[in-house]
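FAQ

Q: What does a record look like?
A: Structure on top, sequence underneath. For example:
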């Protein structure tokens, strides 16, 4: 991965991370200060809490991707240490999907006249879970690559002993 690509990706990750922190701080301030225009009634308060938790899930994924990019840049991504970060991304995506289902459940009572919105929202939740499954497949590919790398290192050391 080139230096420009790494710098651009890190810039995007940093801006998104800082942006989510800013929005979280505003949401928490609104909830704690009592300046909530809805006076703490549902569903707005619940949606704000779910959104803040969703941003935590996004931040976990951002940190894990940052660490993986660092490993790629150093050439150490094909190691067992990378699995921790890939698992973090998978967990963050699953958490985001569960939070989306919570948003769907909070929003559903207001959609009694048009249940199609709730069905579409549930479909989006399933799509988010699908992304987690895609990352899980990529994790399996990483596991195969790590196993092959270990095998290649072992064969290289045996070849070095023969020579």
């Amino acid at each position: 991965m080139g230096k420009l690509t790494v710098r651009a990706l890190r810039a995007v990750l940093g801006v998104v991370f800082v942006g989510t922190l800013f929005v979280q701080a505003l949401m928490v301030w609104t909830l704690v200060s009592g300046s909530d225009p809805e006076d703490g009634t549902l569903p707005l308060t619940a949606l704000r809490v779910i959104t803040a938790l969703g941003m935590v899930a996004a931040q976990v994924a951002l940190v894990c991707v940052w660490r993986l990019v660092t490993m790629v840049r150093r050439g150490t991504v094909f190691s067992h240490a990378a699995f921790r970060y890939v698992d973090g991304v998978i967990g963050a995506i699953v958490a985001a999907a569960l939070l989306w289902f919570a948003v769907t459940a909070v929003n559903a009572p207001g959609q009694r006249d048009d249940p199609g919105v709730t069905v579409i929202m549930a479909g989006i939740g399933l799509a988010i879970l699908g992304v987690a499954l895609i990352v899980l497949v990529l994790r399996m590919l990483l596991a195969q690559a790590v196993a092959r790398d270990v095998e290649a290192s072992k064969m290289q050391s045996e070849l070095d002993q023969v020579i």
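Q: Is there anything notable about this one?
A: The radius of gyration is 21 Å.
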